[in-house]
User: Fold these one by one.
Assistant:
Number 1:
Amino acid sequence: MSPATDSPETGTDQPAASDRISALRRRIDEIDGQIIALWQERAAASQEVGATRIASGGTRLVLSRERVIMERYREGMGPDGTQVALLILRAGRGPLGGVDAS
Ligand SMILES: O=C(O)C(=O)C[C@]1(C(=O)O)C=C[C@@H](O)C=C1
């Protein structure tokens, strides 16, 4: 670890490459922060949808809607999109999901 930062070394001794890697890492850190914030916002929205539906006598899940979402991620991200969608949907279930199997 560098003493000047909490980020690991860039892995190269070449200054130009190291500077470029550091700049790209700053952008990656920004993107990660946005992904985390969006993940949390989505999970909260999804949990409110579920709570609202249950309170009005509906079901907790709507599997046809989940299929549409999984297809959107698969189309946008390729085969890995299905796994991403499953994790996103699981986050949205939150405390409504009952016992966590993980
Ligand atoms: O769109 C809904 O009806 C939701 O409840 C939200 C959501 C989701 O996280 O996208 C969550 C559970 C449902 O099974 C389907 C979708």
Number 2:
Amino acid sequence: MGINEHETFTAEGSSKQYRLHTISLHGSEPDDEAVISCILAANLIPLLPDPLPCPTKKYEHPAVRVLQTEHKGAGLFALQDIPAGQVLLVEYPALILPAGKFSREVYDELGARLPEKRREELMSMANARSKEECPSYVEGIVRTNALQLELDPKGRLPEEEKEFYGGVYPYINRANHSCGPNAMVKWDPARFVTTFYSIRDISAGEEIVKTYVNPALPRQTRLDILEKNYRFTCDCPWCNVGHSTPQELAQIAASDRDRALLGTWIFTHPGYKKWCRDLARADDVVISSYLEALSLSEKEGMHGLQNLFVEEIAMCYSALGDLDAFQKWAKKTIQLTKVEDPVRAARFEEWLVDPPKKMKQWGWRKTQRELSEKRSKKGVSEIIVVDLSDMLGFPE
Ligand SMILES: C[S@@+](CC[C@H](N)C(=O)[O-])C[C@H]1O[C@@H](n2cnc3c(N)ncnc32)[C@H](O)[C@@H]1O
């Protein structure tokens, strides 16, 4: 017997009230329709966008295919070379639900509410959990596949009522894991879709992989999380290494250290904004630091951070007034941010038209240096305090 939309229920160990809810996005054409079966906290339902967005066309890159692998079940593969910054798939979740544990009936009903074809797609997905752990097969699929998403992007729920939600995607979820991924996902709460996109160049025949864990965590922690949540031993080049000789252990320690460093680089190393204000620092200090970050991220396969690093470098060259170098790094920034942050990418596009004219900070450091040299030749010593708040490209 089904549970109806008006019935409320709770998760194990909680008194919070939830409801089943079906989101139907209707477009003008018959196949412009998306049905998402959800478990939502009762107080979240009134916060959903009203009216709901029109469905975005699903997108599948012509060179992306689901193929069977030897040991990992199905996976996604590139049939042709795909450059960094390309949209690979755009997809609605079939299911949206919170992380808590519900009864078998709730999960079964959640799956049963999908249109038949969508339900078939869902039931063919990987389930790494045993029947004892997850009596409902739908729950097993959820725990093997769900990707985190934000349903309250404007933060309208009080802090104590916030919770994590996940979405299950019959196509995007075919992507297997690597600690050096070549693709990432981005959830768009306004359109209810997730975009899967390349973060580095992918070669024809290569598997398209995302990361299921924070890649900045140490190797053993990553292995433990993957084993506990997804029931496999990661065999990526950073995990599948010998770990008995002192040399091998030193190599693992170095990789752990570099990954942790990369994960906090932008918070622990001086960036463009501070450097720009401080003429006492060498002109190349931030550029060298971020070139090092780029090279480490290449070594560790942490390409997902490179958009931040290339942007810092581009901005430094703008303050130095180096046109060729700025153009080179601004183009890289656009390529690596256009899916993740289109507004930022558009800003660089605009600057690129004529950087010296379009950028307030263009050549600022060069000009200030020349000025201070002139002043010191004249024997004038003064502290230059300049308000750069309006010139730094991006708001704080
Ligand atoms: C989200 S699914 C990925 C798609 C799945 N391979 C399929 O056939 O639908 C997660 C499951 O895929 C498998 N998997 C993912 N990445 C793997 C990897 N690097 N090595 C081995 N198995 C992996 C594990 O069984 C895991 O529980």
